[in-house]
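[Meeting: bench + compute handoff]

Bench side (C.D.) handed over the final construct sequence. Compute side (W.E.) agreed to return the predicted structure before the next meeting so the bench team could plan truncations. Sequence as handed over:
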Amino acid sequence: MDYLAINKAAWDKRTSVHVGSKFYDVEGFLAGNSSLQEIELSELDVKGKSLLHLQCHFGLDTLSWAREGAEVTGIDLSSTAVEKAAELARQIEAEAEFICTDVYSTPEKVARQFDIVFTSYGAIAWLPDLDRWARVVSDCLKAGGQFYMVEFHPLEALFDGYSYFAQKEPDIDEEGTYTENCDGEINTLMSWPHPISEVLNALMKAGLELKAYNEFDFSPYDCFEGLTGSIHDSVSGEKVIRYRMQHKQQNIPLCYSVSARKPTVQD
């Protein structure tokens, strides 16, 4: 099965639904709201830096980083998503480049290197080979550049009946999308589980130096069954909703972040 064609078709259809959802709140974004969440905002400084966003969907986070002072490029498998991202960039008069490509072909389509390579929430599950992914990250980084990711914790997948550990064969699901305005259309999707050890080992195998690894007992999104939301003060002092899940009265890790650096010749 051609997983790229299958997933592209699904994400083309999902994008058309997502742009009208409250979950993504395009109207609020156009009015000036950021789509970025407290974890990445508190851990990543992008001002004055070039940033490549892998698997950017339809560009809200990419363009929010532009508002934070980054020079941004986003790539995504979905041509529908890339077209919408470019349209949003024009609407807010932001300098941004969006390119339609699968992750593994990024170095061939993006002929430059960046200060920062960024990826986030729900991205790597669509990739079968993390060693190859990590090599792309390294290839796209300048010497001394930073890779930063924030991702859903794979432990949560156990509660949904999926494997925590890596497997060669994909999980093939027939499901609707996750936004509240899902129209009931069912799409075929292919994904792979990736334990955190696989993520970290792939990055180190690609020559990157691990600088920080953090885990969080909340999700900024109400996107899993059994979550309970509560209001908290973020690092910046703003009120945010953190969604938590418990097992036997103990909080489950729901997100993690990784920061890594590409060495220089002098290192």
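W.E. noted at the follow-up: The longest helix spans residues 3-18. C.D. will use this when planning the next construct.
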